[in-house]
TrEMBL record:
Pfam families: Aldo_ket_red. This is Aldo/keto reductase. It comes from the Bacteria. Residues 49-299 form the NADP-dependent oxidoreductase domain. Signal peptide: none annotated. It comes from Kitasatospora putterlickiae.
Amino acid sequence: MPTDPAAEAAEPSIARFGLGTAAVGRPGYITLGRDLDLPAERTVEALRERTHALLDAAFAAGVRYFDTARSYGRAEEFLGAWLAARPQEAREVTVGSKWGYTYTADWRTSGVPAHEVKEHSTAVFDRQVAETRALLGGPPDLYLVHSVTPDSPALTDPALHARLASLAAEGVRVGLSTSGPGQAAAVRAALEVTVDGRPLFAAVQSTWNLLEPSAGPALAEAYEAGWLVVVKEGMANGRLADRNATGPDTAALRALATRVGASCDALALAAVAAQPWADLVLSGAATTGQLASNLEAVGLAPGADDLDGLAELAQPAEEYWHTRSALPWA
């Protein structure tokens, strides 16, 4: 790791990091080890308190970007209540939310056919944008179409584009999040979407981590086009956390973490922040201890040789997403 003053100046600032609420807005999610992280009784009140504690800790640390979504159970409600109770803090933060998935688990973790159902239609947009406004106390700063894939109607539906353009005219930054092995194709298709001759989208939130870096070149193109680029799942749903990064596929990460005296999670997030196109890197922490560990990435600046060594962790995109799809909701 570089330690000279010039290298230290290149360390990512806290402004590069945000807090996501996917892991604490509902009782079930696919992050590994959640059974160890959340209260035994995952009541609405218990997760509200956990969410508020995380928001307090993140704000105190200097984090100013908070991410949520309609499908994250009651996460928008929890964040909206936190903002309403803290008007000074609310003026300082940027809020991103997403629409396009409907939460269907009814606060259960098992016996659920589907925890969320995706539909990128005008009817769902009309319903969910109203819900988001009500729960957050106004429109979010960013509003993203949730989990766009190359075949999504969000890339081709003129009526939906008109609605999104109208929202953008209010001052909301409109964009999309992506998932699946076709992330790069979805981003590049979105770059071509226009309304009245002007680009529609201006932000993207994509998965990029040491195991799944395939979207990187497309995200660089989005950044060059002036988009805000937000990176999610930088720890691969917990697969790059110390307690889970134990197999041969993560040996290079463990070795570098040991050499520089860092946690695997902080180093994994620092590798994301080292990408020149990454404006914001999300922590998906479920405890304040995890958040503090994640934010230690601020003091790390992996050099070119370090990043080259970590590149060997990359998996074929199809393999990565197949593994992710098999992670249990717990």
